[in-house]
Design a protein that fits this description.
globular, Aminopeptidase, seven-stranded mixed sheet
């Protein structure tokens, strides 16, 4: 299913939330009880995909700033990550954006919307982004780990294998490079 049939709306303080329900009460509660508070405190911004005909929220995601930083206990990971970055640009931290929540309504689940939302986010941070952002990060619930793995996220560490969430990342540079390689050089931008 394509996101094009839905409206994309950044949540505002005065937006009247439409019906939404997923299997996780914590994720339902975040949208209705916490998302506007996170927005007003400048902690996270939530975005909605709305089905205008059904007057329902199809999916939502919230984003917040993050960084990928050197963990002295994880030198092998850091070395693998640094090999992706040009020598003269290597740092001890790299800018990233954390996906705080990404949820599809139970009614719309199983239609590829979650994958499309992830690609939407990836595209947003590789095309016309207003700040540097090399990585997407997520503290994935154990029930969502397979979803993120299928969408090319990697694990930061194995220290959290038995935890309720796993810290994962996605490197945006190969995604951007792949997008640029797929651009038809004779195509023109629409007016």
């Amino acid at each position: 299913m394509s996101l094009e049939k839905f409206e994309f709306i950044p949540l505002t303080d005065d937006f009247e939330l439409l019906p939404f329900h997923c299997k996780d009460d914590d994720l339902n509660s975040f949208l209705f009880d916490d998302a506007k508070h996170y927005l007003s405190e400048l902690l996270a911004v939530t975005y909605l995909f709305i089905d205008p005909q059904a007057q329902k929220t199809v999916a939502y995601f919230s984003l917040l700033n993050d960084k990928v930083a050197l963990d002295p206990e994880e030198r092998s990971f850091w070395n693998r990550l640094n090999r992706r970055i040009n020598n003269n640009k290597r740092c001890k931290t790299y800018p990233s954006v954390k996906i705080g929540r990404l949820v599809v309504s139970e009614e719309y689940a199983g239609q590829g919307i979650g994958h499309d939302v992830l690609n939407f986010i990836k595209h947003a941070f590789t095309n016309g982004n207003r700040t540097g952002c090399r990585f997407l990060t997520v503290d994935a619930y154990s029930s969502a780990i397979d979803f993120y793995v299928k969408n090319d996220f990697d694990f930061f560490t194995n220290k959290d294998v038995k935890d309720d969430t796993r810290l994962m990342y996605f490197d945006l540079k190969p995604f951007k490079d792949k997008q640029q390689a797929n651009i038809n050089p004779t195509a023109t931008m629409p007016n």
